[in-house]
Amino acid sequence: MTLKSMKSKSMKSSLYPAQDLRRRTMAWAIKLKVNPRVVRLQDMRRKWGSCTTAGTVTLAMDLLSQTSEFQDYVIVHELLHLRYPAHGRLFKACLGAHVPRWREIAESAEAYPPSPTAGAGPARQPTSLPRGQLRHGRGRTRSGASR
What we know:
single chain, alpha+beta, Zincin-like, 3-stranded mixed sheet, two-stranded antiparallel sheet, 5 helices, 5 strands
C-alpha cells in the first residue's frame, strides 16, 4: 500500500465530515487557482452555497449528506464566483471543464433543495414583491429597471 493510497483512504473515513468538506474545498481552490478568504459551513434553507465579493465561501451543512459528485459541483460553482462573478459564458465553460456533468447535477440541485427546516428559527414565508422588483440581501429590494 502506497503513502498516497493510505492518505486518500484515511481522508475518506474521517470522523469530521465538515473538516473533510473544507479540505476538499481548499484542494479545489488550489486546482482552480483562487483564494477564498474563509470557507464556512452553516445551515442554509434555500441554497447549497454562496460566495461573497470579499471572498467568503459558505456551504450548506446539508451538503454533507449529498454525494461527493454533487459536493464537488457546489464547491466548484462557488469557488468560480471568486473569478467570474456572473454565470456568463466563461463561468459555464470553466465549470464544464472541471465538472463535465454540471448541467445534470444542477437539475438535481433544483429538484432537491437544502432542508427548509435547517436552522433554529421558524421557517420564513416568502413575501411577494411588487412587479419589477428583485430581492437582494436581507429584505432590501431594488427595482428591476435602471434609474
